[in-house]
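Hi R.,

Here's the chain you asked about this morning:
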Amino acid sequence: MTDWTPPPPPSAPHRSVTGRVLLFVGVALVVVVVAWAAFALVDRALATTTTTHETYAAARGVELRADSDVTVRADPDATSVSVAVVRRAGITGPTFSADESGDTLVLTHRCPGWLWFDWTCRGELHAVVPPGTEVFVRSASGDVEATGPAADVDVRSANGDVLTARTDGDVLAGSSNGRVEVRDVSGDAELTSANGDVEADSVGGDVVADSSNGDVEVSEAGGTVSARTSNGDVEVVDAVDDVEARSTNGDATVIGDGEAVRLTIETTNGTRTVEGATDPAAPRSVVVRSTNGDVAYLAP
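And the predicted structure, written out as tokens:
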């Protein structure tokens, strides 16, 4: 009889190099997620909000740079610069600094540049300045508002709405993600938004209003008007000088003031309506164009 030898026991499964790498990556991801959640919980548990008040001598210009909301109000009765510094902190918080070395007062309130989490850390600034002060504002993630009889104004936000009203000089206002609105401006206005509506109302000088994704509205401009958007509607009302209204994907409408204009009105895909007075020899020109949308020049 032939001797029978039992088969060897099955060997332990051999884990491939790919499997070991995937296991390591999975464990690492779990550790990162747990650490992230732990940081978030601790950061929120430590959250505090404090407000301090600072006063500085009047300066030709005031520059404010912050992580969050910024407001500037020009007060006819103000003779100095007063600032409310709002500090929102968790594991860490923003740092406030003031530079009075030049003719422009520079106030900065920002979180550390190395901060890779920002659930809580925020720096806000709320300033009151004398009339005629030049105003410069930059916010990383917050709304910006500048009102009152300031001189030239340059205000921008990376993520937030921007509003200026009742200013005496020229205005530059922009947002990467937010609405931009200007009202009652004595000088020229240049407004831009990458993602948001743009509106200008009662501007004494020229208006340039552009949006990549949003509607554009201009009313009561004392100078020339250029209003454009890539995705949205354009409307211009009560302009007294040359007008250009363009949309790539949306309607473009200009409402005249009763005077005849040299009109150029074109659309690739849409209807064309002309009701306002036109004259090829008129001193003023109106251009209304759209690639995909209706175009109209209407009577007041």
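The chain has two domains: 22-145, 170-300.

Let me know if you need anything else.
M.
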